[in-house]
Amino acid sequence: MNSILETIGFPQPTIIPVNGIELEVFEAGQQNAGKPIILLHGWPEHAFSWRHQISALVDSGYHVIVPNQRGYGNSSHFSEVIAYDIKHLADDLVALLDHYEYENATFIGHDWGAMVTWWLTLLNPNRVKQLIALAVPYQVRGERPWIEWMEEFLGSDYYFVHFNRQPGVADRILDENVHQFLHNLFRKNIPKMPPEPGMTIINLASAKEPKGEPVMSEDELAVFVSAFESSGFTGSINWYRNLDRNWHLLANANPIIAQPSLMIYGEQDLIPKFEGLSQFVPNVEEVSLDCGHWIQQEKPKETNQVILEWLKQQDS
C-alpha cells in the first residue's frame, strides 16, 4: 500500500491524538495559510478517496487535512456501537480543528462524510465556515427515527436496515470477502437493471460478474483492500447502527444551515436529489455531474473544477 501512496505523491500519515482517540491524518499545504479545508470520506472508503483533489486544493492555497475517521484505517477502533454516534464523530472534528488552532474550516464530505458534514454544521455551526457535500444531500429529521422509517418504506433487506436488525451478519461476510466486495462495489457506468432479491451489499460480496467498469486501478484498489483487511468492517458499519441514536441527538438542533453550501450530485447515482434542499439550506448551490456515486473518483477533473470555482466565488 505504501508504494502506491508514494508513487502518486499522497501525503504521509500522521497519528494525531484528539478527543481521547487517535486519528490517522494525511495533510498537505501550509498550516499558516489561513485556508483550512477538511475532506471527509464515506463508506466503505479511506482518506485515499480524495487523492485526486489534494494537490489541486493545495495549489489554490489551502491547507488540506484528510483524516481517516474513527473506525477506519489506522485511526482508533472501538467495540461499542455508541462510540460511533454523531456526537463522537463531530467532537473528533472539532478537536482536530483545535489541534491545528483553527476557529473554523471549509468541510467537504462524500457519502457518509457528507452526512457528517451536514450534522457537524447543525451541532457546531460556528466551526464550519462553508461546506460542500457530494452524493448525499441534507437529511430532513422527520417525526420518526430513520431506521424505523426506512424499514417500513424500503424493507428489511435495505442495507441500512439490515445492518441494524441483523448485527454481525454483513460484517462477517464482508470481512471474508474484502477484495471481492470492494472490487464489485467501486464501479461506474453501471447499467440500469431490476434490483436483485436479498441484501445488495451481501450480493456484491459474492458476485463473480461485476457490473459496469472499475472506478480505479488494481493498485489503487489495493489501498482500500489493505486497510479493510487490517481493520475489518465492523467499526465503519457501526456508523449505520447509530442512525436512530443520531436522530435523537439532533432533536434540539436548529434544522436550518445558513452557511454557504455546494451540493454535488451524480446523475447516475441511485441516491435521489433532494428537491426541497433550499428550504433547509437557503445558501446552497446545486450541481450535477454525469457520473455515479463515487463522484470525485469517477470525475476528478470535473469535480475539482466545480469545487475550485465555487470556492473562488466564496472568497471574492
Description:
This protein is an alpha/beta fold. The chain has one domain (2-315): Rossmann fold (3-Layer(aba) Sandwich). The chain has helices at residues 2-7, 54-59, 86-99, 112-123, 146-154, 159-165, 169-176, 178-185, 200-206, 218-231, 234-237, 243-249, 277-280, 295-298, 300-315, and strands at residues 13-18, 21-28, 36-40, 63-68, 105-110, 128-134, 187-188, 213-214, 261-266, 284-289. The protein is globular and about 50 Å long.
- Gyration radius (Cα, Å) is 18 Å
Unreliable sequence segments: none
What is the N-to-C succession of helices and strands? HEEEHEHEHEHHHHEHEHHHEHEHH
Write down the overall mean pLDDT: 95
Category by helix and strand content: alpha/beta
Number of strands: 10
SS element count, helices = 15
Number of domains: 1
Shape: globular
Quote the distance from N terminus to C terminus: 40 Å
Features of this protein?
316 residues; alpha/beta; Rossmann fold; eight-stranded mixed sheet; two-stranded antiparallel sheet; 15 helices; 40% helix; globular; AB_hydrolase_1; AB_hydrolase_fold
Quick structural overview:
This protein has 316 residues and is α/β, with parallel strands linked by helices.
